[in-house]
Amino acid sequence: MTETNLPDLIQQMLKPGFYSHPVTEPIELIQTHVSYVLLTGDYAYKLKKPVNFGFLDYSTLERRQHFCHQELRLNERGAGELYLEVLPVTLEGEKYHLGGTGEAVEYALKMRQFPQEALFSELLAQNKLNETDLEELGRLVAEYHAQAQTNDHIRSFGEVSQVRLAIDENYEQTLKYIGAPQTQERFAQTKAYTDNFFDQRPELFVIRIVNNYIRECHGDLHLRNIARWHDKIMVFDCIEFNEPFRFVDVMYDVAFTVMDIEAKGRKDLGNAFLNTYAEQTGDWEGLQVLPLYLSRQAYVRAKVTSFLLDDPNLPASVKEEAGKTASAYYCQAWDYTIPKQGQVILMSGLSGSGKSTTARYLARKLGAVHLRSDAVRKHLAGIPLLERGGDKIYTPEMTQKTYNRLLTLGISLANQGWCVILDAKYDRQHLRQEVITQTQQNQLPLQIIHCTAPIEVLQERLVNRTGDIADATADLLVSQIKQAEPFTNQEQPYLKILDTTQSLEAQL
Q1: What is the largest CA-CA distance in the chain?
Q2: pLDDT reported for residue 1
């Protein structure tokens, strides 16, 4: 759209004299199919286009005003520093004014402007995101969800009939792309997976509703809506225009982030985010519905990219690129539905022997779920992860409860195709035997990895340990050594012993 084709208001907003504050010239205009965003230097102004797409309706001034205020309110949760105020736009003669006192003819959302290179999508493209960033994001999203609202109305959107609506609509809207970016086989198999999931596992959705996992979420939590600015991670531009896209399972949000990271070839970073989120929330059961939402989010990306193929104004080169991108997303959506072989890895070793470091390394390599006994124990006790646990959470009863929960989760997730790492001391034969028995009964592959290091190294690691959820201290080592029971002949075929003072990569 050339400048002369733009509405008068937007043409005036592109001129520096329109604003009461200094601007950086030239003022930049970013357009989407639903909004205009004007970048002026310190501030950005967002105006909604008078459009109605069914799922989104900004067709009247009243609706645009309402959704500007909704956007401001909802984004205060994840990016309060960015979203400043909703300003009326008034008209005197042929001149528009921002924040005038007359009758409003339009509304603009005023935001702080930040550099595009602060976006997680840009940081990832430049290889500037690391595991620590994604672990921090995992903790932030866990907190965001903990504070998100829920009630009977919101929970009703977790019912199978509601969850199905958007997924089935995606399939209907992509029928015409079969034979181009989508293939008949991938389409049929992806659809069969979701149909079967809803038909065969309705109880999962009931449990998610009962346990309050349907909340007022972000709804669009991909990397372009996450930024690190002023050394703080912010999540912004959440869905304000459509309740069914926002009143969703928390795993819907998590899936958007994981899918987007994996689409960009960094499964290790997706794993760091996912394991941190699950550990913070204790919602490991949510991983049972995650593949459904991973497939759904990739399919939405495929669909939206396919729509570009219908635009007569786009050049052939852009359409060719869109076709390749859409095809990759269709393939990713299908890949999430392919049955995987689950397996269990049992970590063993004294405190400070490097079990968690090794488990974390393996989790990133294998895309595994990392279940730490320290986290499981504290969730069972109802205390914050970083709070030191008193004697009452280290009784024999509590320890047995912790190991029972680890094993129940591990077998359940491995049966669904996850690789699961059970990260605990596992210093007693009966605890290890229980894992062997259960994996054999469920025909799941098992590996036992026993971590070792000289006692002086263990002591040094425990003395220097900070900011971790584990409570063990160096003075416990003597009793741990006494209590540890040797591996039996039956355990030997599963066993690999690691010296954690040496390279993990070389040994594994």
Answers
A1: 92
A2: 44
For 49, residues 6+ apart whose C-beta sits below 8 A from its C-beta are 33, 34, 35, 36, 58
Supply the pLDDT for residue 480.
82
Tell the residue number behind the tokens 């070792």, with chain if given: 452
Per-residue confidence (pLDDT) for residue 311, from 0 to 100: 84
From the list 116, 135, 85, 72, the residue with the least C-alpha distance to 228 is: 116
Residue 46 falls in which region: left (phi positive, over 0), alpha (psi -120 to 50) or beta? beta
C-alpha–C-alpha distance, residues 215 and 475, integer Å = 44
Count of residues making up the chain: 508
Owner of token pair 């290091």:
453
**Tokens 């001034």, residue located:** 61
Instruction: Report the run of H or E that residue 90 belongs to, with start and end.
Output: strand 83-92
In this structure, whether the domain defined by 120-335 belongs to CATH 3.90.1200.10 is answered with yes
Crossing angle of helices 184-200 and 160-173, in 10° steps, is: 170
Q: At what angle do helices 373-381 and 396-414 cross, to 10 degrees?
A: 110
List, run by run, the mean pLDDT of 10-residue segments along the chain (508 residues). 76 95 95 91 96 89 96 94 96 91 94 95 97 97 97 97 94 95 97 98 97 97 96 95 94 98 97 98 97 97 92 88 96 97 96 92 97 95 88 89 97 97 95 97 97 88 79 75 90 94 85
List the structure tokens of 383. Answer: 């205390």
**CATH architecture observed for domain 343-507:** 3-Layer(aba) Sandwich (3.40)
Q: Give CA separation, 309 vs 21, 31, 55, 166, 175, in Å.
A: 41, 19, 21, 21, 14
What single-letter DSSP state applies at residue 304? H
d(CA 409, CA 423): 12
CA 88 to chain centre: 35
List, for residues 261-307, the tens digit of each pLDDT value.
999 999 999 999 999 999 999 999 999 999 999 999 999 999 999 98
* pTM reported for the whole predicted model: 0.93
C-beta separation of 380 from 405 below 8 A? yes
Q: Which residues pair with 216 in a beta bridge?
A: 247
b/e 489-503 (16+ beta carbons within 10 angstroms → b): eebeebeeebebeee
